[in-house]
């Protein structure tokens, strides 16, 4: 051994090739599990696998290509969510719900505001939806 080459195993592969193949197999299997389970906990666990098995350059390349595979609006939303841009979910109110909602809305990005607005509206009873629409449409007319 001259110090430049690692000894070959019984298949003739060097130790570094086997190590690379093993870590990439682990990443590929984990990705397969996430796709099959389609579960938030599985995807969050996959991030741990990526940090353990891929170096920063490999993770950057994977993130870049994954974002490029998405439509532009989805890619932007995914990147914002991943790096924490935006307000995140609203927290419990300190004084009252309206104060907290106004504070949160000031920090939220448009996609967040629209998502929470629509989900909140859909969760309202019909009578509340009608009153809300009257209120909003009345403000527009004024």
Tell me what the structure shows.
The chain has 142 residues and is mainly α. The chain has seven helices and no strands. The protein is elongated. The model has no long low-confidence stretch (mean pLDDT 82).
Helix/strand layout:
Blueprint: H1 15-37, H2 40-53, H3 56-68, H4 72-83, H5 97-107, H6 110-123, H7 126-141
Helix pairs in contact: 1-2
Structural class: mainly alpha
User: What's the gyration radius in Å?
Assistant: 24 Å
Major pleated sheet: none
Number of helices: 7
Q: What would a concise description of this structure say?
A:
The protein has 142 residues and is mainly α. 73% of the residues lie in helices and 0% in strands.
